[in-house]
Amino acid sequence: MNTSHSFVQKSKGESFVNRSRLFSSFDWTDYKAQLQNRVKGFELERYFDLTESEKIGIENTIRLNVSATPYYISLADPEDPNCPIRKMILPREDECIFSPEESPDPLHEERLSPVKGLTHMYPDRVLLFTNHECSVYCRHCMRGRKVSDSKERMLTEDLEICFDYIKSHPEITDVVLSGGDPLNLSDSKIDWILERLEKIEHVKICRLGTRNPVTLPFRVTFDLCNIIESHNTDRLSIFVILNLITLKNVLPKQKKQF
């Protein structure tokens, strides 16, 4: 980001007041409204009592963008810097340091990428990056080199090339859908991707990796579940892989979404 910004000293309790206004400003259970009202970058100071380290992190982050849904912000403690969910949302000073020993691509995914958006690390499986957008940009992300970067956007023609590659390699039986977050795509795009995979005879397993049931549980709609279920057949087994960082993510009101 590397942009000069003057942080404003807030009065005690102001973060709670600002949160109340934000949370009541739209239909809370509408996932599209949640995405439209994501809080980005410096705007987060309205909803957190930031430490000096967090201020430096937001101002100077050198990797992925800083953004979170109002829902996920509601789970984070505005005052406690040790809150695990808060740590997922807000970068800290040490995130701005990149030492010579570090690699932006520690798993060598780019070196093992025969076509844009696909990594073929193991003979029988591939990693397909359906998009590079997330509802929340988690600070630990190992793909910070390209997640949230608009230049990495996966177009339909890019995905077509990926499908052609998979079809030309009959040893591939397992496709992992990743990103970004595949559930940030529209229902119709998810339906199309699963349909294309289902038509590739040697693909038997599809694993869909997502954080949206945690960061945006309202995305798990009946329509989405029906789409996934319609392609989960004897021909293709679909597994949804969920990444939970902390038990604070599992709330009674979320049970239906999970």
Automatic annotation (TrEMBL):
Spell out the Pfam families in the cross-references. Fer4_12
Q: Which GO terms describe its molecular function?
A: 4 iron, 4 sulfur cluster binding
Recorded hits in InterPro entries, A to Z, give: Aldolase_TIM, Lys_aminomutase/Glu_NH3_mut, rSAM_sf
Q: Sorted alphabetically, which keywords does the UniProt record give?
A: 4Fe-4S, Iron, Iron-sulfur, Metal-binding
Q: Please, which domain of life does this record's source organism belong to?
A: Bacteria
Q: What is this protein called?
A: 4Fe-4S single cluster domain protein
